[in-house]
Structure formats: structure tokens, C-alpha cells
């Protein structure tokens, strides 16, 4: 149950962020993967062409989302029921690298410099194989680069991917991305303007007031509703400067924050909730993140730690809530 959104600043720079929801608490940390490093994956290994940074599972060079040294940003999102994986040998026979679903983002961020390169090469390089472990969770992917281009990659064809330009700049989960785009047609009447009063015969019917133009915007946590909410919130929000964009992304993504207990999966104890929210500056290659347990935004700079990196570096996320006392004005 994840939601992603891209934002362009007044200066024309591009930023991307996402929420990460799951019903199992994973051990997250920041990670930097250097270039020219051999990454071992479930069924094979590959050498990185570019350094990348992002959120990883504990001491494992496996990025859930991140940014690379070329400014390509992106992440992995749950994609149940529509994924089509095949046996690894069929992938090898086609001359491709077999990957587990959760490994593709790491491969893409360490091997592609741009959205255009993804579009040109992705179906030649890899495919998603059947993997019987936690990394085999069905996934699809979204990427954004410094030019403003965005692309969706879905392993919905056996041994291949369906690739879509993401012109709306938002992303959620199943069904397929193309379905979400068509569904936008059902909400074209939404407006950021207050609905007007009307005269109905001899009765003057008053508007509900401020915000009434958004009546009908879905507020539940299904992927379909979150896609619509993200698309229209992004569409109506004002354009801000580079200094304000990260704050804006967090404000937008706050609309998708799931408190513990609101969404139960199979039992009272099996709950889906927002474990972290991350945002990326594609120009400066900086990650911003806050956790469910700690709303203070923590940062990590790729360029600051890249110079001498020859092996993966890992960074602890502080999960203890931080508070700042007010300062007496006078």
C-alpha cells in the first residue's frame, strides 16, 4: 500500500517521494552502494555502473527506493495479482539477468543513468524470475530523472516488462498503471474552487463552503483511491521553490499516512501501516526520511559519502521520537 509522487520546483528541478507501507516491520537503514561493486542477488550477481543511495534492508545492498549519482530516482511498489514471473532458465536462455521482484530497483539505479536509458534497455537486460523467498514479493516500479521524465516498469508479461511514460507523476499499486490513467476520467469534475450556490426554483441552495469543489475525492486506502487522491492533490497544489519542495512532498504524502490499526490484513495483530516516508532531491542527491516512530526528518547525502566508498556503507535511522523545546521569544 505505497504511494509515490514527483514534484517540479519553480526553478525547474525535480524531486520524488514515496510512502512505504507493509504489515511486517522490516529493519530499514540508509545505504550507499558504490559503482564498480559486485552485487550478489538471489539467482546471480551483477556489477554496478553507478553509485546509488537510498533505503535498504539491514546491511543488505538491496534498495527499496533511492537515487543514483546521475539523479535517477525511483522505488519498488507492491503489485499483487498482475505480475507474471517465469523460470530463471528461460530468462537466461534469452540472454537476460534473472532477478527477484525486490531486486530490480537496485539493478536499475546502479545501471541506468536516465529514464530514457531504462526505456531503451530494460527489456534487453533483465526479467523477473520465480523466487521462493521474501524477495519474490510481487513488485512494479517507477523512476524519475533530472529531465522531469518519469517511467513505470511493470513485470506483467512473462519474461518481459510493460513500460509506460508516467505523465501524471504519481504511482500506487495494482491494478496496472494504464488502468489508473483511464480511471482519472471519472474525476475530471473535481476543482480547487468552492462550489457555487444554486437557485433551485424558489429555493436558494447554499454551497457547503470551502473545499466543496473536492467533494467526491476518494479518501480510503485502496490503490485506486490513493492514485486519484495523489493525482489531484499534486495537480492543484501550488508550485514552490527548491527550498520548499521537500516540505511540500511531505505535506502531500501526509494525506496517505496510515496509522497502526486502521488497516488490518488478516487479524487484529496483522496491520498495514506507514513505516516510513522518504523524499529525494535529484539534483543534490540527498535523501530525506521520517519514520512512523520518529517524525523528525533525517537526511543522507550521496555526494558527501561517495568519495572513498569501495564497499556498501550503511547508516542507522533513529527510531526514537525527537522533540525540540520552544525558545523564549523575549
UniProtKB/TrEMBL annotation:
Keyword terms, alphabetized: Hydrolase
Alphabetical list of SUPFAM superfamilies matching this protein: N-terminal nucleophile aminohydrolases (Ntn hydrolases) (SSF56235)
Family matches, as InterPro entries: CBAH/NAAA_C, Ntn_hydrolases_N, Peptidase_C59
Record has Disulfide bond as a keyword: no
Domain Choloylglycine hydrolase/NAAA C-terminal: 2-306
Any one Pfam family match given in the protein's UniProt record, by short name: CBAH
PANTHER family xref list: CHOLOYLGLYCINE HYDROLASE, HYDROLASE
Family: Belongs to the peptidase C59 family.
Protein name, entry field: Penicillin amidase
Native organism: Enterococcus wangshanyuanii
